[in-house]
């Protein structure tokens, strides 16, 4: 009987011990979902071997994560899209070889990188700041591979045109900055915004869980089932920055930035790869034709059943395509491929 009581006491004690972290998790999920999201990113950076560092450039600070050291293959610098951050790339980094030297930087004003004035948020302004970062971390000691998605693709293309000796190759993923032959659902939103003199809400700057869900539907062809609490957490993380995002949004839509990539395409001399989701509702896949016509030697990979958030929807496939491109340089000519799911 005494042994049975001891066992009961042990089970009660064990249950109570386990209940504390479980209840803490549940409470965090309900009360502080944004904290869980930050913990999630921290956990995946740690799991993937990424370290966060800061680069100080005369009072301007860049925040970036990195893994590996420069080696035989070129280093890879990744530029995220509008209102995102360096952790955007985590899902894809998971599928890249661990020996590669990879850097994911927060774009000007985003996440941990300094916010200054609107000049830094134009495409040319961002190019200058990213070049400042590259020089500070001495990434340009030898040519590196540059990857950019959406707004980051616009910046990456203009960077390659502005500093050709620093780039050995470049991958643009659903890049902004092109006059697209076909319109998208987002283009219709833009027209409504312009007619309202920007008094309507901007679809890429959500302020409620419902608007967040709408944005995810706009940016992704794959339908992810996201709990309401997580949607709330995503909104909570973004809300303090929405005024800044609006400032950036207006700047990259400005006359000097909106078609910056197309205006600089002819100046790109490095081997170029374009990856695009065929169901992109933000920037139309017809932009791939514009790039291919301007740079006939480029490689274009079109992904079936994929929207604008290529890195999130097809991380494994994207990583594989980028590595194939880097490895094949100098051995094969560029081709246009229609790729099924990976």
UniProtKB/TrEMBL annotation:
SUPFAM superfamilies per UniProt: alpha/beta-Hydrolases
Every AB hydrolase-1 domain range: 76-320
Record-level Gene Ontology MF annotations: monoacylglycerol lipase activity
EC category: hydrolase
Predominant location: membrane
GO biological-process terms attached to the record: acylglycerol catabolic process
Keyword vocabulary terms for this entry: Endosome, Hydrolase, Lipid metabolism, Lysosome, Membrane, Mitochondrion, Signal-anchor, Transmembrane, Transmembrane helix
Function (record text): Lipase that preferentially hydrolysis medium-chain saturated monoacylglycerols including 2-arachidonoylglycerol. Through 2-arachidonoylglycerol degradation may regulate endocannabinoid signaling pathways. Also has a lysophosphatidyl lipase activity with a preference for lysophosphatidylglycerol among other lysophospholipids. Also able to degrade bis(monoacylglycero)phosphate (BMP) and constitutes the major enzyme for BMP catabolism.
Protein name: acylglycerol lipase
Source organism of the structure: Oncorhynchus kisutch (Coho salmon)
Gene expressing this chain: ABHD6
């Amino acid at each position: 009987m005494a042994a049975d009581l001891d066992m009961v006491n042990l089970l009660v004690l064990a249950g109570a011990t386990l209940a504390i972290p479980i209840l803490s998790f549940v409470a965090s999920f309900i009360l502080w979902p944004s904290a869980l999201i930050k913990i999630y990113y921290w956990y995946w950076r740690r799991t993937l071997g990424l370290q966060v560092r800061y680069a100080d450039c005369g009072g301007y600070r860049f925040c970036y994560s990195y893994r590996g050291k420069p080696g035989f293959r070129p280093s890879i610098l990744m530029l995220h899209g509008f209102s995102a951050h360096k952790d955007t790339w985590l899902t894809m980094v998971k599928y890249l070889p661990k020996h590669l030297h990879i850097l994911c930087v927060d774009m000007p004003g985003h996440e941990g990188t300094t916010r200054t004035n609107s000049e830094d948020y134009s495409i040319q302004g961002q190019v200058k700041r990213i070049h400042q970062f590259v020089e500070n971390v001495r990434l340009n000691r030898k040519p590196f591979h540059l990857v950019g998605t959406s707004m980051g693709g616009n910046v990456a293309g203009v960077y390659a045109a502005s500093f050709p000796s620093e780039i050995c190759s470049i991958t643009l993923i659903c890049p902004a900055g092109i006059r697209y032959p076909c319109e998208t659902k987002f283009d219709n939103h833009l027209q409504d915004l312009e007619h309202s003199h920007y008094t309507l809400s901007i679809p890429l700057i959500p302020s409620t869980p419902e608007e967040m869900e709408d944005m995810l539907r706009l940016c992704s062809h794959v339908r992810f089932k996201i709990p309401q609490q997580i949607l709330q957490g995503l909104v909570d993380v973004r809300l303090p920055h929405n005024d800044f995002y609006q400032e950036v949004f207006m700047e990259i839509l400005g006359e000097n930035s909106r078609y910056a990539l197309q205006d600089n395409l002819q100046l790109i001399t490095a081997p170029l790869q374009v990856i695009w989701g065929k169901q992109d509702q933000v920037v139309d896949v017809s932009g791939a034709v514009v790039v291919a016509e301007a740079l006939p030697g480029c490689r274009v990979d079109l992904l079936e059943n994929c929207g604008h958030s290529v890195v999130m929807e097809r991380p494994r496939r994207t990583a594989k395509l980028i590595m194939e491109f880097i490895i094949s340089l100098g051995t094969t000519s560029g081709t246009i491929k229609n790729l099924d799911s990976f």
